Amino acid sequence: MSGVRHLYVHLPFCAHRCGYCDFVTVVGRIDDHGRYVNALLAELSLERTLLAPDLETVFIGGGTPSFTHPAALAGLLSSLPGAAEMTVEANPETVTPALASLLRDGGVTRVSLGVQTFEPRLLRVLERAAQPDDVRRAVYALRDANFDNISLDLIYGIPGQSAADLERDLAAALALEPDHLSCYELEAKPGTRFTHTFGDELTRQADAMEDYFERVVDRLTGAGYRWYETANFCRPGAPVGSDDFRARHNLAYWRARDYLGLGIGAVSTVNGRRWRNRPALGRYVDTLLQGARPPREHEELSVEVRQREQVILGLRLDEPLTVDGVEAALDRGAVERLEKLGLARANRGKLTLTQRGRFLGGGVTAELLA
Amino acid sequence: MDQQHIRNFSIIAHIDHGKSTLADRILELTHAVSAREMREQLLDSMDLERERGITIKAQAVRVDWKGHQLNLIDTPGHVDFTYEVSRSLQACEGALLVVDAAQGIEAQTLANAYLALENDLEIVPVVNKIDLPQADPDGAARQLADLLGVEPSSVLRISAKTGVGVDDVLDAVVERVPPPTGDLAAPGRALVFDSSYDQYRGVVAFVRIVDGTFRRREQLRTMALRTRFEAQELGFFSPAQRAVPSLVAGEVGYVITGLKEVSELRVGDTITSEREPAAEALPGFKDVKPMVFAGLFPTDSDRYPDLRDALERLKLNDAALFYEPENSQALGFGFRCGFLGLLHMEIVRERLEREFDLDLLVTAPTVAYRVRTPDGGSIEVHNPADMPDEFEVVEEPYVKASIIVPKEHVGAVMELNNERRGRFDHLEYLSEERVHLTYLLPLSEIVLDYYDQLKSRTRGYASFDYDVADFQEGNLVRVDVLVGGETVDALSLIVHRDSAYARGKALVEKLREEIPRQMFDVPIQAAIGSRVIARETVKARRKDVLAKCYGGDITRKRKLLERQKAGKKRMKQVGAVEVPQEAFLAVLNLGDGQR
Fold this sequence. Notes:
The complex is a heterodimer.
Chain A: E1 6-11, E2 13-14, E3 26-27, H1 33-47, E4 55-62, H2 70-79, E5 83-90, H3 97-105, E6 110-116, H4 120-126, H5 132-144, E7 150-156, H6 163-175, E8 180-185, H7 193-205, H8 212-222, E9 226-229, E10 232-234, H9 248-254, E11 260-262, E12 267-270, E13 273-277, H10 281-289, E14 296-300, H11 303-314, E15 321-322, H12 332-340, E16 344-347, E17 350-353, H13 355-359, H14 361-368
Parallel strand pairs in A: 1-4, 1-11, 2-3, 4-5, 5-6, 6-7, 7-8
Antiparallel strand pairs in A: 8-10, 9-10, 12-13, 13-14, 15-17, 16-17
Helix pairs in contact in A: 1-2, 1-10, 6-8
Chain B: E1 6-13, H1 19-29, H2 47-52, E2 60-65, E3 68-73, H3 82-90, E4 94-100, H4 107-118, E5 122-128, H5 137-148, E6 156-157, H6 166-176, E7 189-198, E8 202-211, E9 213-215, E10 219-222, E11 228-230, E12 233-237, E13 241-244, E14 246-248, E15 252-256, E16 270-273, E17 292-298, H7 304-317, E18 322-328, E19 332-339, H8 342-355, E20 360-362, E21 366-367, E22 369-372, E23 378-381, E24 393-406, H9 410-419, E25 423-429, E26 434-442, H10 450-457, E27 463-474, E28 476-483, E29 486-487, E30 493-496, H11 497-514, E31 522-528, E32 531-538, H12 554-570, E33 572-574, E34 577-579, H13 581-588
Parallel strand pairs in B: 1-3, 1-4, 4-5, 5-6
Antiparallel strand pairs in B: 2-3, 7-8, 7-16, 8-15, 9-14, 10-11, 10-16, 12-13, 12-15, 17-19, 17-20, 17-21, 18-19, 22-23, 22-24, 24-26, 24-27, 25-26, 28-29, 28-30, 28-31, 31-32, 33-34
C-alpha cells in the first residue's frame, strides 16, 4: 500500500453564514481558531501513517479559510506537509496583499475565490459581503503575490437573475482572466433559510433558467476554456509544476482515489472505508486535544459500491470512462439506449458522454447504473 | 302448512327509506329474534351492504303472525340487479311499498314498484318515518295513492324506528296479500330466486315452491341449465337456519345442492323432480349478460395471482360476474371483467380491495358493443383495444333512464341528458313539486360520471334508475392514445364521434401533466385510426446534473442516483418512455367535468 496522496483540511469559520449554504460552518469564534488548528494538527498526527511520504495535493476548504485568524492560519500552513498543489479557498473581501503573502509563504499554490456573482443586487440575495471591486482587488493582490493558479467560483440560477445578468457575470469573470472557473447552479437545499425565503420564486423561474447551464458552457468554452468536469472549466496552459490548470485535488475525487479529510464534517475515503467526522466543533477539539480520535460515522464501501462511484464520478469528466473494472456497475442495455438517443458513445472499452449527454449527466448516469 | 295460511311478500323501498329497519321490527314483533339477539339491520349481513345501505343478496325469513306463516323475501335494492329483483318479486304474492314521509317517491322505488305491478303483486303502500319533524305523511300518502290508483286512506303510516304501526303492517299483509295458489298434487316446481355458496356445503338455492312437494334426498334438476343434483338438505330461515324433511307448494326456503359452482344454478331457473319432472318451466328465466366492462389490474404486478384467486372466490357467490385474463402492455397482467352495471362494478371493486386487500388500477368502464365487420361477421367488443380498425356498423346498448327531480331542476337534467346524447321520452308530474322524466340514453354515456353530474347539477335532489332497453346503431369511433408513438392499449376509448376531440384532448393534456420530462421529446397524441386529433409534447429536459460533487458529497450523491435508478425501474415502460403508474391512475380517474 502506497499511502494516501490527497489531503483535505476543513476550516469551518465564517464571518457570516450565507442563507443558501449547507456546509459545516461556524460563525465568528475568533478565540477558538487557534485551538481548532491545534486539534486539526492532532488529527493529522493520529492519521499520519495513512499518508504517503509525498502528497500530491492539499485542499484547505471551508467555511471561509481566509477568515481564519492569520496567526492560526499561518501556523496551520507551516505544519501541513507540502504538496505539488496546495489550494486554499478564500472570500474576496478577505484577500489583502498581506493575506496573499501569508498564503504564498505558507506554500499555497492555488487560490479559489468565492465570487458567486458580480451583481450587487444578487450578492445581497446570497448575503455575500464582497462587492464586485473586492473581487478585482483580490485577484490583483494574488497576482502581485505571484499566484499563477487562481480559480473563481460562480453561482447561477439566483432568484431574480436574468439571462443578461448571467452573461454580465461571465463577462466580468472572464475579464479577470482566471486560470480556472467553477460554475454551480444554485441548489435550494431543503431546510435552509434560503429555500424558505426563495423556494417558491425559484420554482416559478425554473423554466426561464433552464438554459443557463448551456449558456455557461457555451460562453466559457467559446472563450477557450476546457469544460473538463460538469461544473469546472480551465484555461489552456499550465501552472508551474503541473500539466494543466485542472484542479488536481478535485480530479482525485472524480477518479475515485483515496483521500484523507481533517476537521469537523470532513470525509475520508481510504481502502474501501469512508468516515465522516461529526460536525460539532467543541467535541472535535476536546476529543483530539485529549489525544483521541473525534466522533465519526463510518461506512464500508463494498466492491460494487466503489464501482458504482467510479462510474458516477468518472462520467462527470470530459475524459472517457474506462469500462474495464466497472462492468458490473453498468447496465449494458442502457448504454445502447443512450447511444441511440445520442447521449453516450461506447467505443473500444471506453464510455463517453456526448455534449447533450453531459447536460443530462444526472439522468444519464442513473440510467447507466446497473 | 296449507296455502291459505301462507303469505309471501317483499319490501320495496329506496335506500335509507327504512326497509331494513322495518324488517328488523317485523322479526322483533313476531318473536323471531329477541331484542337481545337483535343486531341492527339483521338481514344485511355483509359489511359493504351496511355501509352503503343496500342489500345485495336476497334472503328469505319465515315468521309466524296470528296463525299465519309469513315469508319475507328480501330484494336487492338497485337497478343493476333488476333481474334478481324481478325474480324475488316473482316468488311473492305481495309487496310492501315503503316510502320515506319526508322524501316521497324516488326513481328506484318507482322502478321496483313497476316491477311488482308487472308481476301482478298486491301492493301494500306504507309511509315510513312519520315521527320525523320534517315528515309530510299526507303528501307522501297522496303520491303513493296516485301511483297505485288507490285511496290515500289505504296507505299505512308507520315509524319502523319506534315500532308505531308495524303490527298494522303485518295485519295488512295477512288481509290484503293473497295466499299462494299452487297445485299440491302437480309435479314439483320451485323458482330459484337467489343462491349463495357455502364452502362446506356448496351451492345453496333460495327457492319458492310453486307446485308439489320437495323432499330431502330427492334427485332434482333445473329445467333451463339441466343441472342435476340431490336435495342434501331442505329448510328455511327464521332467521336461524332450520332443516325440514320437506317443503311444499306455497312455501319459501332453501335447498342445499352440493353443487360446486353458482353458475350451475342460475337465478330464475326452475327446479323440478328428476323422477317426475314438470312439463313446463316457470316463466321469466333469462341468462343475464354483463353490460359494463373494465380492466382490473393490480398496481403491484406481483399480486396478479392474488387478484385471480380473489375473483375466483367472488365468482363463487356471484354468477353475474364475468372475467377473463387481459394483458396490457402498459398495465401488465390483469383481468377484463364484466358487470351487470355500475353499482355491481363498484361492489366488486370494493370487495376486492377491502376483503382481499388488493390495490387496483381500474380502466375506464366501457359497455358491450356489437360490431359488424366488412366481411359480414359480427363480434361483441368488451375492450376498446379489441375494436377493429375497419367495421360497417357499431351498435351500442341504450337504457331507459328514469329520473325523479324537483321541478326547478328539470332544465338542468334535460341539459345533461342532451349532452349525453339522450332522447327525451316522457315527462310527468308526480306531485306539484316533483317531476318524473324518462329518457333513452346510451349506456356508455352513463357509465363514467353521469350519476355524479346528475347529483351535482340538481344539488343532490335527483334520483335515478335505469333499465337496459336495446342496442342501437351509433356514430362511434375508437380513440387511441399514443405516447412516444406507441399506442397505450389501456387508454383506448370508444366514444361518439362528436365527443372524440374533447375526450382525446383532455386525455393528452392530463398525460402531459403527469408524464415527467425525459431525455428526449415525448409526443402524446390522441388519434382516430391514423388521424391525430390532439397532440401535446413533453419537452425533453435540457439539464439534469448534480451541480457539485466533491469528497464530502459522494455518498449522498451516489444514494441520490441509486434512488433515481430504482425509481426508473418502477416506471411502466411505453416504448422508450418511462411513465409513472400515477400517470395512468390520474388519466383513468379522469372523467369528472372533463367531457
